[in-house]
Design goal:
single chain; eight-stranded parallel barrel; 13 helices; 414 residues; 18 strands; alpha/beta; Lyase, Ornithine Decarboxylase, Chain A, domain 1; 30% helix
Length: 414
Amino acid sequence: MERTQLLELANKYGSPLYVYDTDKIETQYKRLTSAFNSVDNLKLNYAVKALSNVNILKFLTNLGAGLDTVSIQEVQLSLTTGIDPKNIIYTPNGVSLQEIEEVAKLGVQINIDNLSILESFGQKHPEIPVCVRINPHIMAGGNSKISVGHIDSKFGISIHQVPHIKRVVENTGMNINGIHMHTGSDILDIDTFLRASEILFDVAKQFKNIDFIDFGSGFKVPYKEGDISTDIEQLGLQLSERFNDFCTEYGKEITLMFEPGKFLVSEAGSFLAKVNVVKQTTSTVFAHVDSGFNHLVRPMMYDSYHHITNISNPSGKDRYYSVVGYICETDTFASNRRISEISEEDVLCFHNAGAYCFSMASNYNSRYIPAEVMIVDGKDYLIRKRQTMQDILQNQVVVDFAPKSKSKKEKVTA
């Protein structure tokens, strides 16, 4: 998206504002499918949690994507797109058996990540095929908060517990139709991913009715100029060849699945915020914007980097700023960052704001959640209105109660 277009959108819809470029989403989707074009059966299930606006879901399903969900609410949201329930996979963590049963009634693919629920579900619903999430005991991902396949992770059934899975299947008569893993996000080492894949192949061949293997995702995208990212094309070459060999060994053409979220939408998103105050202290120049970690928490939660540009003054002299928010806690987006000279009322653009940004926004400090805009074929569409105080109060119940009466002692003191 061009700088001038973003400025026009900030003026038209106000700030802060999320903007999504669907051209970039489509490019990323086609890049991933192209990397695995030698696989006969490939299915990309977009991770709804990354960016869950229903218009984004519709756009991706129109491209041919399925949807990867982690809660019954995400399943229900996905179904509003008109998608076939069979193209939704549900991979919760630590939820109740009751929620899984409710989701099963909706006809989506169930994916279970612990032995207790697997056994309980199999005893009650042996006729419903399920996928199992395996923990491959592989440390992968950008940091400890987004590494989910290691031995101490809460996710998945340990590879050492596969005999227990087989015993549950034997005792209940249930059918395991898929094997799944997700090792973490921001994966760079292809060899680590391939090593985890070999573990999945070893598990899959122990079950007779596998229809698909889901390798998760976590592919890293570049966050700044010169940044490194997952070599999708090389991974596609190596994993496709190994997957096709496995299908031959297994004696059946099965489906290769991924659940990309960040890879598809991260670079498509821009977050626009206006500068309220430029504040010089004894050691730092702060640029205070009309937002905070209530709208974009990733820098504070994950120490993530978001490139920031001053789209109001792109040719200005570079200076060093700490870009901070208006929340009543330390909410620093960038420290000592080189940005073209900033003045009050300038609009700053936070790049790579498509994934896990709006979806993690909150009403902290009773601030409104921003609006969202989607660009399709160069035209802008408002896809979520900015909140109002009515939205803040909507589900609050005002109770009419009498104030507590004061004791005699309190009255005297008063």
